Amino acid sequence: MSRSRLTLLTLIATCFGVAQLSFAASASPTPTPSPTPSEELLKIHLKLDMSKWELIKRESGDINYYTFINDPTLPYLRARYQAGMDSAMVGYAIESTDKKQLKAVEWKWRAQVLPKGGDECVHDMADSAAGVHLMWKSGLRWYGLKYVWSAVGPKNAICDQRHGLFLVRDTVIRESGGPLNTWRTEKVELRETFLKHFRGGDPKGDVPDFVGIGLSTDGDQTQSESVADYTDFILVR
User: Fold this and answer.
1) Helices (H), 142-204
2) How far apart are CA 138 and CA 73, in angstroms?
3) pTM to 2 decimal places
4) Domains identified in the chain and CATH numbers
């Protein structure tokens, strides 16, 4: 993406009024029945509402090309970038009393149209059919991992590494090429992955709060159409 700035992360976490999550449970003054297996599962798996993602206005053009599709079998968010548009991004901020207890993020995505020659590892070709940004914050410093569905980039490649004073970010090509119109399920272990990328794999390293998720589909550098769908974002603790 042509515009990746520190404000991108700060806006996702603090400035654009997106949906907030809270895991704090109020104490019950009276005994309650034992939870059912489904209720126990909900305590661990917290599913994000796909209709609540918000545009990050200061990092987006005038057109919001993300649309919520209320499919009765699987609601999802569709991103349809058309050549000539300014790129846009949506986000979901996480507010919680126990952020450090989050263990993993899961999601499903599918590429519909790949940007022609899009490759996040090549300068001036850094477009992706889909991108999922995971973000942490420690003091004034932000950490980001951007997982992308590339058109032609080598799968599992790590590129566009930025290790600045206030922003540290790696881009990981998670998927590349086809098959198109096929859902793929992804899962990222938050602590393990953060330590691998930002603490040299030190198992005793500190992991800051996980604060938000961003989504980006674009084709502004290759000037080509780019389309993808996102759904089933789940926080696991």
Assistant:
1) 190-198
2) 39
3) 0.82
4) 6-23+44-236 (2.60.120)
